[in-house]
Amino acid sequence: NGSNGKAAPAAGVVVPEIKFTKLFINGEFVDAASGKTFETRDPRTGDVLAHVAEADKADVDLAVKSARDAFEHGKWPRMSGYERGRIMSKLADLVEQHTEELAALDGADAGKLVLLGKIIDIPAATQMLRYYAGAADKIHGEVLRVSGKYQGYTLKEPVGVVGVIIPWNFPTMMFFLKVSPALAAGCTVVVKPAEQTPLSALYYAHLAKLAGVPDGVINVVPGFGPTAGAALTSHMDVDSVAFTGSTEVGRLIMESAARSNLKMVSLELGGKSPLIVFDDADVDMAVNLSRLAIFYNKGEVCVAGSRVYVQEGIYDEFVKKAVEAAQNWKVGDPFDVTTNMGPQVDKDQFERVLKYIEHGKSEGATLLTGGKPAADKGYYIEPTIFVDVTEDMKIAQEEIFGPVMSLMKFRSVDEVIEKANCTKYGLAAGIVTKSLDIANRVSRSVRAGTVWVNCYYAFDPDAPFGGYKMSGFGRDQGLAAMDKYLQVKSVITALPDSPW
Ligand code: NAD
User: Fold this and answer.
1) 97: alpha, beta or left, given left = phi > 0 and alpha = psi -120 to 50?
2) Among 275, 341, 325, 331, CA closest to 303
3) For range 272-297, the mean pLDDT
4) Distance (Å, rounded) from C-alpha 129 to C-alpha 176?
5) Which residue CA neighbors atom 9 of ligand 1 most closely?
6) What is the phi/psi pair of residue 24, to 5°?
7) pTM passes above 0.80
8) What is the pLDDT at residue 263?
9) Residues 312, 409: contact at Cβ < 8 Å?
10) Could you give the angle at the alpha carbon of 463 between the alpha carbons of 457 and 464, nearest 5°?
């Protein structure tokens, strides 16, 4: 109890066995061409967890070649959707069977709560796989209404080789969010996981092989963004890049695609999502939701509810209860089932979050709780709440990606709609109210890809997910995500003897 007490992760940390640390290319685990490796660290202690083969351009070239061969000559794009779906379902079963190990890997590599890995991340990943396994044999074209003596129809064809570049905050979900629809479409992929969290992706490559995914269809090349990542985005033989990460890197990826072969790009980027609580809300419920919205996964969530707008009638009560709730959010070892929040993913993020907290203080916001490291060792930060935040402050505009809530008071619906929309981002928003009219009006007025009403983080594979504005474009999840991995071809046939 008491997040502001010291977490004590160092004694007796459980470190899972690490089986896969090499690149996965053409169905084999191989060393990097350069022989180089990089360290992935345990955020609970800062200690090295594993040395992982470090992909660079030469390795990415090999991985793309293997994906290209598998696409042009292999079985995967040519087998029936039903068969692809069966193999994907088998992969889902295997992932499920290895839940304990996989949740522990993400726990040690990313500082994610192992219990939640088991009950949220891994089940979400397998659900995603099964959802798209079911979609694989339902990829339809259309019959076209063409004028004159012609007949027309469309074919949906896989785009080809897809480069997948993902961040570290949800290593498992991000992998399957992109890979599942790509596989269903009949594409082949080269995945570059984040350098902070390469371990589970390598494990998934291994399981995919066991499930019967042919060699070359899934390749995994851990490495750094400016080297391995850039080699993928500038590659002349990659047809599309599916990216999740920061807005800054998203911009680099578009530039790189434009300068190379004009490959397709889809970007899921940052956010600064508002959670808006109206006077008629149940305050306890709203406080709980706001705590989850910002402190879940230590605030390392692109849709984190980092700006909490509370209407003036309940503001004082809300603030008091929110502070208590934050102080009862237990910081500690992610392997301990009583922990609510583990360490930030690495030293850079830890320092970045603390810097934002300093900005908040120096710009005149009032720090009500938290604001400091929560342990002597590892990258733990206290759940932090600022009030007296104004829209022009850095902490109200920029994505902190850490456990820092900015609480703001508002009066009217018009005012809060304007404020909710006043950042460059548009990923998600939350609304807490009992009024249908307010909920509907605000849902339609907020420029964001997802709006949650009286809930937060309610994800489903069937609900398209993505950004407005500088939160990116393209959608993950839902059948809409298939569009990123399919080309549409029109076939027009002359019908000279048609009676009409
Ligand atoms: P990041 O953009 O630095 O890194 C993401 C990935 O891009 C990593 O794999 C990294 O190696 C790679 N990369 C970095 N530079 C590259 C380059 N020049 N070329 C190609 N690839 C490159 O982001 P991060 O700090 O790891 O992750 C946090 C960010 O991700 C946050 O801004 C967050 O909002 C965003 N995010 C968005 C979503 C979403 O769905 N919209 C989900 C999770 C995280």
Assistant:
1) alpha
2) 275
3) 98
4) 7
5) 194
6) -115, 105
7) yes
8) 98
9) yes
10) 105
